[in-house]
From TrEMBL:
SUPFAM superfamilies linked to this entry: Pseudouridine synthase
Gene transcribed to yield this protein: LOC115557446
Lineage: Eukaryota, Metazoa, Chordata, Craniata, Vertebrata
Chemical reaction(s) catalysed: uridine in 5S rRNA = pseudouridine in 5S rRNA; a uridine in mRNA = a pseudouridine in mRNA; a uridine in tRNA = a pseudouridine in tRNA
Protein's name according to its UniProt entry: Pseudouridylate synthase RPUSD4, mitochondrial
GO biological process, one term: pseudouridine synthesis
Molecular function via GO: pseudouridine synthase activity; RNA binding
């Protein structure tokens, strides 16, 4: 390639011969094309912009050093709030859990103790996290109970259910509670937040339950409804069918305490000892379901219902964060019948913070807070 050099003085230019012109022409025609011009570069960063960037980086570094997290979005704050309310006691030292149970104790006498069970803590050991049964010896020491006194949980609650948990202090109390429970003499009332409004607003449901085997990649068992009546082929009237031999009797009394914008606060009173019947009824019979329906608490691969957009908005969540929503089922009240030697025992348990927050977000009102008619 021939490089032409511009002379600084015009009078130094030499006349071009024919051979030189031929060489120049051949060079120009055979030379590779010049590269396309590069796009114009962005304007250089101004000093004021650079100063702002440095200040921002320094501020973030100071926050990290001091342990202050960057400003979170409203969604991140809401998810963090739910985790704080529901995961505080799931993996703590046994002494910490025992101290919390002792501090929040609801009732005690010489025969029984009623605890305020927190969310996410199992009553019995299922192979994960701290359970209440494991810390009962520590709790007994904190209460200065006798050496031969052994606390035993009765009428246990599911891991995701909060509220009144009954403990017996001696074997005689255990036998008495078993007798009362078998004859349906212990009254228990639960409060649940549902999506949908039960129709009618008050009534009694009597549908047996049966445990069914669910095949598939994740083999498990699940409680389901086993109705004793079916709709006729004509669509008019019902016919009684033979009850399944393995079906368990399940009767639940319910009433709507408050409803607003498609959500309800429902009181459930199981009249039989069948577990999880009120959860199944909420989904299958009352035409509504729990904010997080945990029908088979033994399974860790639960399916979550798709909540309506308006409900998610009120709860401050998005579809991608639905798994952070907790089961809203609370054992509100327990009543043990009196005897000749002691009066009736009636214990009410305050609502957990995440439950009251959900009520506030959904504009649901406690019965005692409603304005008189």
């Amino acid at each position: 390639m021939i490089v032409l050099r511009r002379q600084t003085r015009i009078n130094n230019l030499q006349p071009m011969t024919s051979d030189s012109a031929h060489v120049l022409w051949r060079t120009l025609t055979t030379a590779p094309p010049l590269p396309s011009p590069e796009p114009e570069e962005k304007a250089p960063l101004r000093a004021i912009d650079l100063a702002k960037k440095i200040r921002q980086e320094k501020r973030e570094e100071e926050r990290t050093t001091k342990g202050i997290k960057p400003t979170a979005t409203p969604l991140q704050k809401r998810v963090s709030e739910l985790k704080q309310f529901t995961q505080q006691l799931q993996n703590v030292h046994p002494n910490v859990l025992a101290k919390h149970l002792h501090k929040t104790m609801l009732f005690q006498n010489r025969d029984v103790i009623v605890l305020n069970k927190p969310y996410g803590v199992s009553v019995k050991d299922h192979g994960g996290g701290t359970c209440i049964t494991a810390v009962l010896p520590i709790l007994a020491k904190m209460m200065d109970l006798k050496v031969d006194s052994e606390l035993q949980p009765c009428l246990g609650l599911e891991k995701e259910v909060t509220g009144t948990l009954l403990l017996a202090r001696n074997q005689e109390a255990v036998d008495n509670i078993v007798y009362l429970h078998r004859h349906n003499q212990i009254q228990r009332k639960y409060w649940a937040i549902t999506v949908g409004v039960p129709v009618p607003s008050e009534g009694v449901i009597d549908i047996p339950l049966i445990e069914r085997e669910i095949a598939g990649t994740q083999h498990h068992f699940k409680m389901g409804l086993s109705p004793m009546f079916r709709l006729n082929e004509t669509g008019e009237g019902v016919s009684r069918i033979r009850a399944h031999r393995q079906a368990e009797s399940a009767v639940t009394k319910y009433r709507v305490l408050d409803s607003r914008a498609g959500c309800s606060l429902v009181e459930l009173e199981p009249l039989t000892g069948t577990r999880s019947c009120w959860l199944l009824y909420c989904h299958g019979q009352l035409s509504c379901f729990e904010v997080w329906d945990c029908i088979t608490s033994r399974c860790s691969f639960l399916k979550y219902y798709k909540l309506p957009e308006n409900v998610l908005g009120k709860l401050g969540l998005e579809k991608s964060k639905t798994r952070n929503l907790t089961l809203h089922l609370h054992a509100r009240q327990m009543v043990l019948p009196g005897t000749t030697s002691q009066p009736e025992i009636r214990v009410s348990c305050p609502m957990p913070k995440y439950f009251t927050k959900a009520l506030q977000r959904l504009n649901l009102i406690f019965p005692d807070e409603k304005e008189p008619n």
